Amino acid sequence: MSNNFQEKANFIWQVADDILHIHARLEADEGLGDALLSDNLHDAKVYKFNQVLDKMLLEFVHTNLDKYKKLTEPKVNEMLKRQRFEGVAGGISGS
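Request: output the structure for the sequence above.
Response:
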């Protein structure tokens, strides 16, 4: 299996996991639940759903952007690369 294929597969699994997490948060959102169970018009329910989902997606982007920024700080990035190299290289070489 090529490295590129594995990277794409890992990305797809990560996105799927993220979507499941967002789905669970949508189901647990009390305000959204109240709006969907009320006798509001369908369009009002869709509007509320879209508002909540947009907010969650924005939070998701900010969270992951913050992680990216932290992981690309020079000292943190150097340490991360060194640790991951040692872990991967050690596992591959068996030493």
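Residues 42-71 form the longest helix (30 residues).
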